[in-house]
Amino acid sequence: MLLNVKQRLLLMNVLPGEGNYDTLKIVRDQQALLGFSEEEHKNLKMQRKDGLIVWDEGAEVSVDIRIGEVAATIIKRTLRQLSEEGQLQMEFLPLYEHFVEGEEWLPNKQESNVTIIAEATVEPKADNGDTPTLIRSTKDVMGSRPAAEGAEPTS
Predict the structure, then answer these.
(1) Which long-range contacts does 130-134 make (Cβ < 8 Å, 24+ apart)?
(2) How much is the pLDDT for 119?
(3) I need a labelling partner for 13 at 20 to 30 A (CA). Which of 53, 72, 126, 143 fits?
(4) List of residues 6+ apart from 109 with CB closer than 8 A
């Protein structure tokens, strides 16, 4: 899934900080994939200012990141819950439309021009380089950790 900086930060903030063991392992793995490498931090000139994450939008490049089936289910459930509680914000709308309503993912170039994420709660993590990046669509990722919370039963 091709994601810009803002979308990666938003998705990291959607992933829960509590749940069962299997779910938290999947969340941790997904956060590592969504996180930023040292090189990205340097190139984007990422900084934390007054609880906000800022970056150089001119240096931004979208990155293809694998979103697993269970992680997608967790994201979908969280976005649906935010909507039901009237807490869904405008910046989450494209993510909601993709994960909840099943719309095809077409990253909007205009969205990447936003340089500040309010109330960022996840500290960007450096990539240790151990995780190879596989280029696959969200639909191709089906089958990861079916025992975790939110997984569809497999036959």
Answers:
(1) 131/32, 131/33, 133/64, 133/65, 133/66, 134/66
(2) 41
(3) 143
(4) none
Please state, in angstroms and rounded to a whole number, the distance separating the CA atoms of residues 60 and 5.
Answer: 7
CA neighbor of 14 nearest in space, from 97, 54, 74: 74
Contact predicate 29/35, CB 8 Å: no
The predicted pLDDT at position 83 comes to 94
> What pLDDT is stored for residue 24 in this prediction?
93
Q: Do 90 and 26 touch, CB atoms closer than 8 A?
A: no
Residues of the chain with pLDDT under 50: 109-127, 130-149, 155
Helix axes 5-14, 21-34, angle to 10 degrees: 170
- Phi, psi angle pair for 11, to nearest 5°: -65, -40
| DSSP 8-state secondary structure symbol assigned to residue 19 | S
